[in-house]
């Protein structure tokens, strides 16, 4: 299947008062959706994608999001 | 009153794992391909620890987000 | 007549235009509405220039624990709240076996952020059953309480440790149904469940392990009584919320029950979230389902410390990179003048971190810094002849990275979108979460904010429509039949306020939890008096009274 990719990354407040990373994922059928990462997950995604800015996450494969789950972390 | 089309989803039956759901919900696909598709459509369930653990109350999408003029959720 | 409120502007909860006149109360009930009441009463209140409204009802609270030592639910009562609904999000203090208390305390602490002392000595655990809990509550209630029974505790009672391991079998389902039935017989207004909450170990609460068949079985019991099902859905995930709306609609139609989900947020990050959810709700309501989205009035704030790499710093790569360093390296980097200069140059003067100088110090661990709490970085910087960013770093280092800060109004914060949303006929104003997250932000004063911001300043509502939303509408949605209106025969819950100044006060730290535990509160502005079942429970003049006229109410 074609790669679903990160189309947009924005910071948004979570219900508990913490900042969350909200990713928009564009799928190969043209549909898109959102998935949220907490501070720890977001930090690991930045490392995985060698990103320094939010914009650096745009265009990255959804597989990167899956990959951060396989890394040790808190 | 007819409901408008919404993104299809299922819930796990007691004892079901991802391959079971893949076989039930995406019977036209090879299991591996179905599992990959389910992963990409259900990132919200893989971004937990342990990733991919299915809880009884989870919403499990069985298709990609529908194409809207605005984003939907992955 | 026990009490006459004279010369008030009567906003009776129906949404119809207000009118001037007197309100008479006898034996805890409203006996006269409008016109001039002849004679005198034991007590009279002159409400000239003030609004006289039904007491406000808060449908989403976590006062379960606090009510055991504070039957006034401070400071909710002084905001005009006369009825609270605790037990939301699948968690209630009953039914609960003694052996499960530590587990529930962990879950409550995760959500409420109550100190240990709140559970250890502030009250006596005298109950296991739901009616036993209500008996403990009734001893000194000053507000009315319409409690939900929590799905997680029902599951825990029946399944023990297996509640967080697997699906229930047929016998366990039947036992849960019977237990819920007992709760409803005792006075529970409904059942709450959660699809998102976690315990103190960040593991899912028991209700999340329940399959839909279990929720369906419990909803069937709710159907026997026509009572409410409350759920917490996933946030900002529109497709999931739509799926939850469909699930709730199925249960509502099948079992003829009302359902509500909370919260629904507006978000610039997901701009079509609200429109899509409301469209689905409208479709389901047109089929006869009752699925009420709860929307909070206040914007969402973000709190952070330097311990964790808050995403607020993601806008400034140098800061974010520094924040992601291991702890000791982070401290060393921040203490390095050259590195700090680099960060400062990145952050200022452009201020890439939004509202940098308006960020407030929320908490510190050094006693000598206690005076900084509540002040803005801009204010402190001016005093020190420094800059907000340098001040923030200095305070963090001095407090071993444990100082916390607040950036206000960063979500659910576009009044041009939130105002019409709150006024939407299918939106249930609530989701205050009062009594929860007490060490993170204040969850009190949402009703004052409704009147000050959306009625007085923006005029998204008429005064009458806003009052109706938080009184009669709430009572009707929850099936509370004898409250929510100024009408003869109904319970005399009354809030008197000045519409020109009603508001929520500034957020401030209070040390009024057991053993001087800290929480954030907001006091009320413009509320004159609050009457619960005919008794004066709070007044601007005398504060909290000794009245304990609150009741356990149900549908």
Q: What fraction of residues of chain B sit in β-strands?
A: 5-15%
Number of domains of chain B: 1
Determine the fraction of residues in helical runs of chain B and give it as a percent range: 25-40%
Mean pLDDT of chain B: 88
Content-based structural category of chain B: mainly alpha
Rg of chain B (C-alpha, Å): 13 Å
Intertermini distance of chain B: 28 Å
| Helix segment tally of chain A | 2
User: How many beta-strand segments of chain B?
Assistant: 2
Largest interface between protein chains, with number of residues from each side: B-C, 26 and 34 residues
Number of domains of chain A: 1
Number of distinct beta strands of chain A: 3
* Quaternary organization: heterotrimer
* Helix vs. strand class of chain A: alpha+beta
How many helices of chain B? The count is: 3
Order of helices and strands of chain A: EEEHH
Element-level helix/strand string of chain B: EHHHE
Low-pLDDT ranges of chain B? 70-74
What do you see in this structure?
The complex is a heterotrimer of chains A (74), B (74) and C (555). Chain A is of the alpha+beta class. Helices cover 26% and strands 31% of the residues of chain A. Chain A has helices at residues 39-48, 62-70; strands spanning 5-13, 19-26, 32-37. In chain A, strands 1-2-3 form a 3-stranded antiparallel β-sheet. In chain A, helix 1 packs across helix 2 (62-70). Chain B has one domain (9-61). Chain B is built from 3 helices and 2 strands, in the order βαααβ. Chain B has a two-stranded antiparallel ribbon. Chain B starts with 8 loop residues before the first strand and ends in a 13-residue tail after the last strand. In chain C, helix 4 (170-186) runs parallel beside helix 5 (212-225). Chain C is globular, with a radius of gyration of 24 Å. Chain C has 16 helices and 25 strands. The longest helix of chain C has 18 residues, at 238-255. Chain C has 555 residues and is of the alpha/beta class. Helices cover 31% and strands 20% of the residues of chain C. In chain C, the strands form 6 sheets. In chain C, strands 1, 2, 3, 4, 5, 18, 23, 24 and 25 form a 9-stranded mixed β-sheet that branches. A 6-stranded parallel β-sheet of chain C has the order 9-10-11-12-13-17, with helices on both faces. In chain C, strands 6-7-8 form a 3-stranded parallel β-sheet, with no helix packed on it. Chains in contact: A-B, A-C, B-C. Chains B and C meet through loops of B and helix 5, helix 6 and helix 7 of C.
